[in-house]
Amino acid sequence: MRSLHDTKFSILELAPVRENKSIQSSLHHALELAQHAERLGYERIWLAEHHNMAGIASSATSVLLGYLLANTSSIKVGSGGVMLPNHAPLVVAEQFGTLATLYPNRVELGLGRAPGTDPATMRALRRGHQETEDQFPRDVAEILQYFKDPAPNQRIIATPGQSTHVPVWLLGSSLFSAQLAAQLGLPYSFASHFAPRMLAQAIQLYRENFVPSEYLDRPYVSMGVPILIADSDEEAEFLASTPYQRILGMIRSNRTTLKPPVENMNELWSPAEKQYIDNFYAVAQIGSPETVKAGLANLLTQYDVDEFIFTCDIYDTEKRLDNFTRLMNLKNPAS
After folding, report:
1. pLDDT at 283 over 90
2. pTM for the whole thing?
3. Which of 21, 54, 160, 310 is the most buried (most CB within 10 A)?
4. Which GO terms describe its molecular function (predicted)?
């Protein structure tokens, strides 16, 4: 069983837009976080694609990735993920092939099967496209081919893209992508930061069916974990009222900007809504450094993953940066 020290730590960023703050400040903070993560030794920082959401500014994912890559030097930067139903595979390959050509050995492409938005916005993103059950596997295979050396008589060449060998991950919150990642021999990241219910089953399915490939010789699993570290459990719960309010807005079909913390969530949510949010954050680690360290160790005991990829929705940006400093100190405590 691996220890926290042996487990890779990464960050998933959505460039959250804060109440009474500008979108520009959110994009600048995403870079500040990437630079901070690089200094601390995080493995990678990924951006997630969402659309038509007032509180998320990472919609033009590849464009924002270019901004992060241009202003960092070593940390791996990628998508967690690009929502493939919204895009033509060739365009995705060209975008990420361009980034990989400019920033060799630093660019990664995580692919998701969900649209990351509502049906009307999905239609606006990819007009005339009809998604079918077998479309996602075909699209993934097409992208993989665009990153390889060209096949004989290959008619369409991704330029840039071909022969860049951009690492591709599959992301998911159900069993479908776990099975596909296993068949293709790709690394797999489970979205347990918002949909933890099928985590254990998906990891088991992926590991039991994994086929070694040109990409990996053994399974590689990361899991999403919401994280919030403060001086005490009580302070952490107070700060956590910010992400709680975000999910409460989702439940009520009112996706707003990130709100400051409040003293008493019981004045805002019903018992049923609290139960929904507790289930949503079932793997979240919220508390003092000691509480969070014990919680992460317990997750490793349960799931034995290769990597944690952390999300954090603290309203105060300085406290958010400090959260990731404290988190890395749990992995690598001072001697």
Report:
1. yes
2. 0.95
3. 310
4. oxidoreductase activity, acting on paired donors, with incorporation or reduction of molecular oxygen
